[in-house]
Structure prediction request, 206 residues.
Amino acid sequence: MIGYLQGELLSADERGLVLLTPGGVGYEVAAPTSVLARLPGRGDEVRLFIHTQVGEKAIDLFGFLTADDLDLFRTLISIDKLGPKKALAILSMFDAAHLREIAFREDVNTLSTVPGIGPKSAKQILWNLKDKVDKLKPVAGRGGGAPQGEQGPQGEYLDALAGLKGLGYGEDEIRPMLIETFDDEPDLDAAGAIRAVLKKINAARS
Prediction:
């Protein structure tokens, strides 16, 4: 099985990329848009962690820039009836930290925004994903992730996130501030984290 590829980027589009190895073999590799957006220019070197899937009619390769991305993909496809295409669609929209939050909140509506996943499928995916959520590690190079563990810091983080959203703040704005807050003070409770983030917001807007 192919587990890693290194070579020259020949082309890339919304479906994936073609990688030319030093041996002169070009490989077609599917990848989520979150990976494709971080590729270098054509002709530059690319290194990818690969998941190889052997089917009756084809051998498909799926590429990721980090081992953690690859682990996350394999976690998703281990869920019953969640194939590689839907897993790529999920990873095109959410990183590991965000998926962990969605799973703990059982946020069917958010997961249902992924093309090809309706509310019924989202509910089933989240039900299975909660059992595997400990495997969802923050992905390197994306600014870290939510604090670990279902209890303790993770629970306080999610409570603080819900509280700030209830105050009318957008998730995209407050998530990085919350992550930074818990990185600096892991023992904070939800109320303390909310106060700290509100101070950051007021400081940024003053």
Summary: Residues 138-152 have pLDDT under 50 and may be disordered. DSSP finds nine helices and five strands in the chain.
